[in-house]
Predict the 3D structure of the following.
Amino acid sequence: MTAKSQRLASEIEFSWIDPAELFPNSYNPNVLDDDLFAKAVASIQTYGFVDPVTARIVEGRYEIIDGEHRVRAAMELGLVSIPVIRIEVDDDTARQLTLVLNELHGRPDPAKLERLLSGLSERHPIESLMKTLPYAREQFVAMQAPPSMSQPPSLQDQTATRWVERMYRLPRTAADVLDAALSQAKQFEEITEDWRAMEAIARRYIDAG
């Protein structure tokens, strides 16, 4: 642990705060659409407030560094106190932490995610899962495990939907174009997973823009 991280750790304080005492910062780039916000509210109703908000004191008030939407959800639910981790940091550190806490969560391994979702759907009604899981219904169905690889190749060809159609529910003609682009990306990028090929295509598109 560095001297700076030791100093920061020593200035962390945990407490329960009225959500009305917290205010959003002006630089948070993260947004939630209405559907995802509704799921955030339902998640807190179902599981409780399990993820503390991160905040700092600015001019005698609690400025949110991470957790703006959870605070909004708590206020909508009428909660009188929520867990808050208070840290003392300067403006630039607060801005960097907002980005880190929003983005530094990794991304799911597709195979593990498929198994996880499939297992949940076997044990719970999809209507119940859709109340809190951060997916649209079509996306949830599409991400579940495809037919077993132990099937004969001919049967796999008949029953398995191509990745592009399964993930994005595109018409066959549009899926054909995107599948061809994925095949080309995998050839030149020397990768195997379709989702990594999609990342490569998106990266080239952004770089070109």
